[in-house]
Design brief:
- It is a single chain.
- By secondary structure, the chain is mostly helical.
- Helix content is 66%, strand content 0%.
- α2 packs across α4.
């Protein structure tokens, strides 16, 4: 009934203990920064063409909204269009249309 050496778990090797040791927080931070940059790049690649064409087409809506200016709601609509246009210009600035490549 004695315990033999085969009943006890083997001792970990040096490489196993290194793996179990807490690692540097900077390594996790670098991984997180890399993931966020990748996500930002993918997001911009999908949003940039839509924003570019929004910046091109949104001014077409200015005249109809200016025609109806006079009430508070129409003024708010015009200001929203201007805000969307500015956001589209900023986000779509780096887009290169297929004919400009």
């Amino acid at each position: 009934m004695g315990s033999s050496s085969s009943d006890s778990p083997p001792l970990p090797h040096q490489s196993d203990t290194d793996r179990l040791r807490p690692t540097d927080a900077g390594r996790y931070l670098n991984t997180l920064v890399f993931a966020v940059r990748g996500l930002w790049t993918v997001t911009l690649l999908s949003v940039r063409p839509v924003a570019f064409w929004g910046a091109v087409l949104l001014p077409l809506l200015y005249l109809p909204s200016l025609y109806g200016v006079g009430t508070g709601q129409d003024t708010a609509l015009f200001l929203e269009l201007v805000a969307w246009h500015v956001a589209s210009i900023v986000l779509g600035h780096g887009h290169t249309p297929f004919w400009g490549r």
